[in-house]
Amino acid sequence: MNERNIDLRGIFVILRRRVKLVLFIIVIGMLATASLLYALPSNYVAKTQLFLDVAGADGSNTKQSNAFGLTNSIVESEVKLIKSEPVLVKAFADLQLLQTEEFGNKRSWLSVFGVPGSPSGLQQDEAAASQAFEEFNKRISAKRLGLTFLIEVTARSENAKRAADIANAIASSHIELKLKYNLAQTKSVQVLLDASAVETRKVLDVAETQLQSYFVDNLDEFAAQTSDTQLDQIRRELQLVQEDRARDERRFELLNEFGREKNWDILKSSSISSNLQLAQKQRDALLRRIEAEPNSDANEALDEQLELLQKQINLLVDQEVSVIETDLRKGIVLEKDLLSRARNRAVELDFPSPLLRQFYQIKASAETARKQYENALEAASSNRVRAATLLSDVRIVSTATVPLHAVSPNRPLMLALALLFFVTVAIILALLLDHYWGGISSSEQLEELLGLRTGAVLPQVESRDASLHARQQHLAFIMDDAPNSAFSEAVRKLRSEIEISAGKAKGNSDTGGTVILLSSAVAKEGKSTVSIALAKNLAASGARTLIIDADLRKPTIHEYLGLEGENGLVEFLKDTKETDFLAKSFKTRVAPNLDVLPGRSLLGLKTDALVSSVGFQQLIRSVRRHYDFIILDTPPLLPVVDTTYLLPHADVVLLIVGFQSTDQRQVQHAAKLIVEHAGAKAAIIPILNKSDLIAAQYLQHYGGYRFSGITQIAAD
């Protein structure tokens, strides 16, 4: 079909003719597609939505939330953390996906057959687990929803419930791991804050000690330089308290040493109270009495008195130590109070510059140390409270639910697309086969193939008779029986083409009648019936017409016309002297102005030698003088060589091409033989025979005509 003028009717005819091929491709394609879709596992998608509080659960990052660029970075980082390996590994392990059929280990087919080199069991398990995790990773995605703080976690699985479980597990694992990390970080910070509090406390103690020592060391000088009676009174009281404290500390050390070592000589010290000294003297007296009378019966009573006295002394020591501890505490408190009163009074007085400058330096150092210690305590306390009330800045706002429908494969859509695809492929393939690799289906295609204008398109004619011979005879007499049929009209058009072409081929030369040679590329293209129909039409126009059955191998003209076969042509070609026998073979007046020179099949003939003989040339020259048109019905071009010897005699060559019955390469080869062997002036006219398309075209252009016997069947 011409690209410039697409014939939709021709396309429909081709599709009708190739309907089996089209249906076969569509059915096979759809079956394959359905099988593939059935084999493909269904994929379900579940989604969980998380909300990220960029200000923090405790609102501690409000400054960060005001920075748009930083906020975007935080959200995008959170998205990447959700798909991080620790989160996926935890979810994969929690759901025990390695035990499922979808992600589980599968034995290698190599190991099943014991092929050498197949991975060992442990290696195979590790490889399978790694591959399963990679597949799991591919089925997880996380993205930010627009410019919001919402993050959507998507999971795909072959099981609907598993898809929802995976999406929820990913979200839960991320929150749990983030809480765990934040708690560990908070504990680490707590350790550092506690250590900082201890260090700042030491610094504060040192600073307080320096400040206290400064007043203690310089209190006499302060009192002397200022001559302040109140400060001097405080100084004297402080000295007395310090002296008492020193005595108590000495006594406390002695009594503690006695308690540890039980050295009774310690109680003889003057620092010890009189009660303890008296008790010690009584003990010494008892010891002397026991030593003076070692074997006396009274020693047992003395020992008991000694033991009782020692217990009383220990009790007195404990009481004394408790009293001393109380006094020491009171002394420390009183000393601190006096020092505080002295510092406050000293601030009110005018010190000399050196003392005042040194005082303020020590005081500022102490205040700084106290402030640092208080800050350290506050930070440690706040961090401890934060650890106890730690919350995640990510929370689930929408849990994944079990999807009701699979997202892929979308079987209805895939089937519809597959149907569209295979219908398109089938149509294109049918058109390509029909246009390039199949037979000829239109006059335009024939013209494009040969570069010659098609002389006529003859329709397929239907006959009610079932036998081939009856159908062929029907075609032979259709010009008589149905003169207004589409076939008859096409033959008349062919006659006009021949008359025009013959006039151009012969020019002004007077060579007698016009020789019309009909042949085809292969057999059974209908050239004999076309020869008869054309001869009858020429004869009906008043032209003297002769049909010569030049197919000496399989002559059929006499059968179509119901005549007896004759051998006169063969005998004449063998011996040109047999003119009488040739004359008797002519069948005259078969129809008005129509004569026939039939033949009869004879076995063992060398037909190529006969048609190339001088006798045939003489025959053609003779009949040209007596007839206006001589029609040569010849054998097909490709199977035998006979026609190539007949082509030089022809003024007009009709190449009969069967509709969709002859391969295009065969048609091209036949046309090439005609061009090579026909005369230079011979007109070559292709004829498309047995077409089912011309009838519809005829009815369209000549709607007033009606005729029977037109078949609508496909050529093949």
From TrEMBL:
Coiled coil regions, renumbered to chain: 224-251
Catalytic activity: L-tyrosyl-[protein] + ATP = O-phospho-L-tyrosyl-[protein] + ADP + H(+)
Domain (Polysaccharide chain length determinant N-terminal) ranges: 5-95
InterPro entries associated with the record: AAA_dom, Bact_polysacc_biosynth/exp, GNVR, LPS_length_determ_N, P-loop_NTPase, Wzc-like_C
Assigned keywords, A-Z: ATP-binding, Cell inner membrane, Cell membrane, Coiled coil, Kinase, Membrane, Nucleotide-binding, Transferase, Transmembrane, Transmembrane helix, Tyrosine-protein kinase
Domain AAA: 526-659
Keyword Magnesium in annotation: no
Catalytic class of the enzyme: transferase
Membrane topology (UniProt): Multi-pass membrane protein
Organism superkingdom: Bacteria
Flavoprotein keyword on record: no
Subcellular location: Cell inner membrane
EC numbers for this chain: 2.7.10.2
CDD domains the record matches: BY-kinase
Transmembrane segments: 21-40, 413-433
Stretches assigned to the Tyrosine-protein kinase G-rich domain: 365-432
UniProt similarity note: Belongs to the etk/wzc family. Belongs to the CpsD/CapB family.
Protein name, UniProt field: non-specific protein-tyrosine kinase
The organism of origin for this protein: Maritalea porphyrae
